[in-house]
Design a protein that fits this description.
The chain has about 350 residues and is α/β, with parallel strands linked by helices. Helices cover about 40% and strands about 15% of the residues. It is built from eleven helices and 13 strands. Strands 1-9-8-5-4-2-3 form a seven-stranded mixed sheet, with helices on both faces. A two-stranded antiparallel ribbon has the order 6-7. The protein is globular, with a radius of gyration of 20 Å. The model has no long low-confidence stretch (mean pLDDT about 100).
Length: about 350
């Protein structure tokens, strides 16, 4: 069976270095904070060009901490997309604020900037665009709208770490950028992990306190915070993977483009990547009206698939209180019925890719 994401082959490729880095943490017994975390944050700054990189416990906590840092409170409104993983809107609701959804662009699947301004009210405090499937959003347009209305922008770059937008790295395109190091992400650790990026010294200082129980010094707490620290063992894994990440991003791009070149079919819509940006293909997602039959055919031949995402957030039971209904976000609803993801990793061989394409097109 072809793996959906080949983490095993990746581990085998870097095994000795990863084991060595983990052993150093075990020998030091410095499991929280310390040298590995500091080194990882420094390397993440260099990679993104961001002034500050703050390692944290997950991509979800990165978003939560970012909202806390800009003082999102009950009664506030935060604009985001209904077509994403639940974490994006979940953290807004968790803080008592209201997620306000804006439909997506049908070609990129990212939030449609032309529909944002009409949703802004006196209660709007921030915009959280999601750089879905590995491609950054239209960040210049979004930042311009935010500036006009004195709003903060938090890029949810959980799927786009390593991608570029007009020659700038995702995570360094707005007031705050957040990413996830969940194992299946383009840069993944061996558990949960994430990072927050900003060029604002004050925000960075506050974020560091918030993720450590609001402490400004030991046992002195300036803010109500959380335990949002990243484990040193996860930092050790990421330090090794980051050394090879540029090459993996290149390989992802080649495999993504090859998929698109091979999948020439009237019944399949391949990913559309805008000319001024790149994608890290966190997923290689196609659209087809024949999704169920294609999934069954692939699975019968040992090819795993996934659906990212089968139900938009505005139709989820937990968000029923927001009062949305079917038909409110037609593009998100349409895409959710047709979207499906194929096996994708830097280690996907041409032979396996040819096999997948053959099944899809025969």
């Amino acid at each position: 069976m072809i793996p959906f994401i080949d983490l095993k082959k990746q581990y085998q490729s870097y095994k000795n270095e990863i084991n060595s880095e983990i052993s150093q943490v075990l020998e030091s017994c410095q499991f929280i904070g310390g040298e590995k975390i500091a080194k990882l944050e420094d390397e993440l700054c260099k990679f993104t060009g961001s002034k500050h990189a703050i390692a944290c416990s997950s991509g979800t906590d990165a978003l939560l901490l970012s909202l806390m840092a800009i003082d999102i409170k009950p009664g506030d409104e935060v604009i985001t997309t209904p077509f994403t993983f639940i974490a994006t809107a979940e953290v807004i609701s968790f803080l008592g604020a209201t997620p306000v959804f804006v439909d997506i662009d049908e070609m990129s699947y990212n939030i449609d900037p032309s529909k944002i301004e009409e949703k802004i009210t006196s209660n709007t405090k921030a915009i959280v665009p999601v750089s879905l499937y590995g491609q950054p959003c239209d960040m210049d347009e979004i930042n311009q709208i935010a500036k006009k209305h004195s709003l903060k922008v938090i890029e949810d770059a959980a799927q786009s770490f390593g991608a570029t937008y007009k020659d700038r790295k995702s995570c360094n395109l707005s007031d705050i950028g957040c990413t996830s190091f969940f194992p299946s992400k383009p840069l993944g650790c061996y558990g949960d992990g994430g990072a927050i990026f900003t060029n604002d010294d004050d925000l960075a200082s506050k974020l560091r306190m918030l993720l450590n129980h609001g402490q400004n010094e030991r046992y002195k707490h300036k803010y109500i915070g959380i335990n949002g620290r990243l484990d040193a063992i996860q930092a050790a894994v990421l330090l090794v993977k980051l050394k090879y990440f540029d090459k993996e991003v290149e390989d992802r791009a080649k495999i993504g483009k090859r998929y698109s070149n091979l999948l020439k079919s009237d019944s399949i819509i391949t990913p559309y990547i805008k000319e001024d940006r790149t994608s890290v293909y966190a997923q290689y997602s196609i659209r087809t009206p024949n999704r169920e039959s294609i999934i069954e055919k692939l699975n019968q031949n040992g090819v795993p698939t996934a659906i990212h995402y089968p139900m938009p957030l505005h139709l989820q039971e937990c968000f029923k209180y927001l009062g949305y209904k079917e038909g409110d976000f037609e593009v998100s609803e349409k895409v959710s019925l047709e979207i499906m993801s194929l096996p994708m990793s830097p280690f996907l061989s041409e032979k396996d890719q040819d096999f997948i394409v053959e099944i899809l097109t025969k």
